[in-house]
Amino acid sequence: MLPLPGHPSLTKDLRSLKGVGPQLERILQEKGFQTVGDLLSLMPNRYQDRRALTPLDRLRADSEALINGQIEDLRPKRSGRTGRRFFEIIISDDTGQVTAFWFRLPAYLRRTMKKGDRVLLFGQVKDYQNRLYILHPEIIPWQGKEPPIPEIRPVYPELEDIKPGVLRRIMAQASRELSGVPAIFPQAWLKKQNLSDPITSLMTIHRPPARKTGPLPRSDQSRAWRSLSLFELIFIQLALARTRARLNREQGLTFPIQSRLGNQFLSSQPFKLTPSQAQVLKEIQQDMAAPRPMNRLLQGEVGSGKTVLAMTAALAAIDGGFQAAFMVPTEILAQQHYQTLTPYATRLGLTIDLLVGSRTEAEKNLCQEHLASGKIQLVFGTHALFSKAVQFKSLGLVVIDEQHRFGVAQRLALKSKAARPDLLVMTATPIPRSLALTLYGDLDLSMIQGLPPGRQPVKTKIFSSQNRVEAYQNLAQEVLNDGQAFVVAPRIEAKETETNVSEDLSAAKDLFRFISQEVLPQVEVGLVHGRMKIQEQQAALEAFRKGRIRVLVATTVIEVGLDVADATMILIEGADRFGLAQLHQLRGRVGRGPRPARCILISGSEDSPSESRLQIMARTSNGFILAEEDLKFRGPGDAAGLKQSGMPSLTWARLPHDLPLLLQARKLAQEIIASDPELDDPNFRLVRDVVNQIDRKMQGELVEAG
Questions:
Q1: What distance in Å separates the CA atoms of residue 673 and residue 348, rounded to the nearest whole number?
Q2: For residue 33, how far is the Cα from the chain centroid?
Q3: Which of 336, 320, 558, 602 is nearest to 460 (CA)?
Q4: What digits encode the pLDDT tens for the residues 52-82?
Q5: Element (H, E) at 312
Q6: Secondary structure letter of residue 213 according to DSSP
Q7: CB–CB of 229/195 below 8 Å?
């Protein structure tokens, strides 16, 4: 949730609200609400229109209405079909009659209501056999002398263990606290931008003015909601723009644009750079030659050549007399980079090493000693590089692969190992531009367009679980025709309640037995998953890479970076359980050699709700199109790592729908920071407070990162 300024009205404990005792406070805190300000991030689902009485002859089915009338009859009854007891009253006004009934009506109301009384009710109008009725209406205390006070009442999401009426009363109290909070942004700036302050918009959301006529808006379609969406994005962009401005003011290292080692490395490759690769390398080289630290995000499809460009940059840093660190999310990928680049390093006369959790203490200690002395010029590693024990003599470049696996603070943690190193972060998980601007606004953006020459397109076909036999016949035929195949399962082991393996092959261990015993008993089948020792994983991968294993059954441990040129097929069980971006990553494990490659997706059933989503995989191999679709289906948190980024979750803004607002927010934030880099203007004091809270959230992640 986005923080609000630290005003005393908003930082009050929940116990300051009438009716919130220790038990209710604990329930609210477990749901993430610590203060009154936190509670105000809970948005209404909709509103109830209580602005005017509806004559009974104007009631319409499936609508809510406030009605007033005289009780004509009232009595307890029993349903003829179910025998269930209920209480019924018939009320009338000058225009007609309507029936209201309750299955549970408090005894005191039954005793106090009598024929001839006038009552004020609010509820949902229903139609049964062409007769209108109101089920469980709310009885509103009213003397009948004056018309009821007009009201547009917010309706909040149901929270477990909290009655709706209790929540409504608490939220009403919390929203009244907003009246004492000053505007966050200066009035002159708001007037210039033709905007309403976030506090005003928040008050409108929680306490909509009843004088407004016309139909009720949905809360997320109101002008106030749109205003809050914009300001939510402005605050995040201000935090990123301020960080970026600070980085740009730092004195960085400078490296020669042309590197002897880099040129030797590129000339030893069996291919020439594509125009897009060459352009991205130029952008990286210009950054490294500039006197400010490089902070660049490199996006490129699976196999688009990011590692070659990163290695060229690392060699430029080494050429300049500095060290380079290459961090990746998994030991498998770190091992692969290390093994792939060791022959090149040997020919170039470089000393490189590997720092991962599975190495012995003696090996880790020796590596740390050589990093501190400067003997090691290039190191590949995982989170182990974050360790406080790891120190560098002269770290010049930090490369972080698969950036979506790491947060903002983790980038800072590795950069803190040196004074002002250059930073290159990369991802093969395509991130829509809208999300890249949100998550990585402190970074310059480079994109490798297209794939290198020789990469094979991967044909994708979808099978339902009912057609699983045909899918595995395709697998067997591919392998018996000298192909190699990955088979991916969503999990390692089946649940205890699952006994029929032939109906559910979502567990890697069951899938391994099924293929090795029933589908392809005549070939070598391997298994790799995250619970295996890293040495066992490496042995299985190496056997697969050398062709001794023809089918490798795996979990998503193989998702990132694994390069096996002879792999020609990947079959993914339970494909409907994965996001499109993850499926695209997995599909990128094949099609790296000269032979045509195929991807088989097995989903739950032909009429599965995810079937249409998977069809997108069959229609396109463009990762950015898939990422946009994933964003629509799964939301920004799941699609590209917002939840791991150190940024607040979005409460009001919706991406990619709100991309125009994001671009507007980015422009406004850049204008503010350009004139006031540290938000020192006293008029922006509360703005700075919110931005500082976002920064502290990032720093909190930094502490957790170690």
A1: 45
A2: 21
A3: 602
A4: 999 999 999 999 999 999 999 999 988 877 7
A5: helix 306-319
A6: -
A7: no
